[in-house]
Amino acid sequence: MASKDTEAHRPWGHYVVLEDAADHKVKRIVVQPRKRLSLQRHRKRAEHWYVIQGEAVVTRDGEEIPVKAGQAVDIPRGAWHRIANPGRVDLAFVEIQTGEYFGEDDIERSEDDYGRA
Questions:
Q1: Which pLDDT tens digit goes with each residue over 29-48?
Q2: How far apart are CA 106 and CA 2, in angstroms?
Q3: Fewer CB within 10 Å: N-end or C-end of the chain?
């Protein structure tokens, strides 16, 4: 079980780091209704998102992909992406990161609803 210091709150919801290893990182991410993450890309990692609750719209390099609980989408390294919760209940998904580096400073943002650079 994750310790308290692995939980991070953001304007769109929160996430908990479930595992942080040399070759991968796993998070459980919750996005509040009608919120979305920034449009972003990563240079050093790819991501696999598996939705466990709610519904999502994933934007990946300009394509909008509806995703429901029990479905997954892959985000290749370097792809512009975001996830949005269009529903009325929390969206929860598991993110599996693979690559060479998993720090939060490997986020390049193009658009952000909350004014983050």
A1: 999 999 999 999 999 999 99
A2: 22
A3: N
